[in-house]
Amino acid sequence: MPDATGTAQPKLQGVPNAGDVFGENTPYGVGGLGGSSAGPLDVVHVFWLAGMSCDGCSVAVTGATNPSVEELLAGSIPGLPPVVLHHPVLSVSAGAGFTRAFHAAAKGELEAPYVVVVEGSIADDQAFPPDEGYYSAMGAGGFDPESGGSDQPNRMTDWVVKLAPGAAAMVAIGTCATWGGIPAAAGNVTGSMSLGDFLGQDYISTLGVPVVNVPGCSPVGDNFTEVVAGLLLFLQGIAPLPELDELGRPAWQFKETVHRHCARAGYYEEGTFAELPGDQECLVEIGCWGPVVQCNITERGAINHMGGCMVAGGACIGCTMPGFPDKFAPFYKAPPGSALSSNISRTTGAGIRRLRRLSMAHANRSPIWDRAGEVPSAYSRRASKPTTVSKVEGFFYKRLQYRGTVDLAKRNKRQPQPKTMNFFAGEHEQDLARYTPPDPQAGEGAGREEL
Ligand code: SF4
């Protein structure tokens, strides 16, 4: 519908019943509700644009499980409208049939809300006229066939310019789109930048949302689909905008460091470090930046809560961070700041580790074995006696442990030993059907015909 100046304005469906949930005076936009006045939404279109990209984000998203892409497309999650995904790789249509909906949205004729997802960096090709070239493109023929169109490919940046003003939300997926990433590294000739840098700090979507950034190279697929689900609830008007941090990242996904939840953090604390890839200890001395990198891969895993960099043996190279890759290069070299902290933990960890091993040895003996003075297990015949050191440590440990409470160590000392312990070592020894190993010499010299 044209505004006062005659310019076509993007149409959005709305959510009139949103106020029923949060109160009719709750403001729309950031911090408030989404939608406008024509919902509930029957469908939301998602337009996927690929710029300077390797398609790794697409691959990651197709592996998402909570929610999965299939669930979003089917609208099988209660409260979420079905999604129509227009993806240059995943969509079954091609050519003009595929770009038709993109054109409709660009002209404000889609008649449904849409979200734009950008994968890959934004190249600086708006800096020169379209007939002088492009870096990435989708479709061809221009955007105005009535004026003769164009024989040039439609630049990806043109699509962004045309779709961003009417989008309900612009989502940058992956580190190339969120911060510039590898295509924007030192020495690049494309002038690549992030979606946010391209649109500028004044950009907000039709629903008042700045660019939403889900970084990672490639990102965790679930991080993205979870954010999309949150945005869809927001569009429906039944949930507030997902919490974003000062860089537009989903705050709950990126507020913690990799290191805090790393499966190897215990090794760091005890001051033991890997020397080679494949070692099981902390990877900081072979280039892990986890202590300063905000990412949830260590909690969430790569796919379906499985895998992830450090779990799979890979040092964190900071791929979710705006400084990636240049500020983390050269990869697999210890970060300069790590020497201080790792040497401190090496010093303190050495002592702590030994004390813990003593406690562990103590905890690895049942009270029955303590009273017996040995571990009556075939595996422990040679190492079953407590040492003087472990006895002294156990004495003080138990005093501290049970201080102010029931002294279970004393009670255990008074506990009678089970009478039938070591059953087959006594009078029942002959009952034990022993396995007699074969004599390896027995068949020696046998002729082939005997075999
Ligand atoms: Fe921290 Fe990296 Fe070591 Fe994990 S491997 S404990 S993230 S330094």
Describe it for me?
This protein is of the alpha/beta class and 451 residues long. It has 3 domains: 18-253, Rossmann fold, CATH 3.40.50.700; 256-364, Irregular (Cytochrome-c3 Hydrogenase, Chain A, domain 2); 365-413, no CATH class. The chain has helices spanning 18-22, 56-62, 69-74, 95-106, 156-163, 174-179, 195-199, 221-236, 251-254, 265-269, 297-300, 338-363, 367-372, 388-402, 408-414; strands at 44-50, 83-86, 114-119, 137-140, 153-155, 169-173, 212-214. Helix 2 (56-62) packs across helix 8 and helix 12 packs across helix 14 (388-402). The chain is elongated. Iron/sulfur cluster (SF4) binds next to helix 10.
Which SSEs are present, and which pair or pack?
Blueprint: H1 18-22, E1 44-50, H2 56-62, H3 69-74, E2 83-86, H4 95-106, E3 114-119, E4 137-140, E5 153-155, H5 156-163, E6 169-173, H6 174-179, H7 195-199, E7 212-214, H8 221-236, H9 251-254, H10 265-269, H11 297-300, H12 338-363, H13 367-372, H14 388-402, H15 408-414
Parallel strand pairs: 1-2, 1-3, 3-6, 6-7
Antiparallel strand pairs: 4-5
Helix pairs in contact: 2-8, 12-14
The structure holds iron/sulfur cluster.
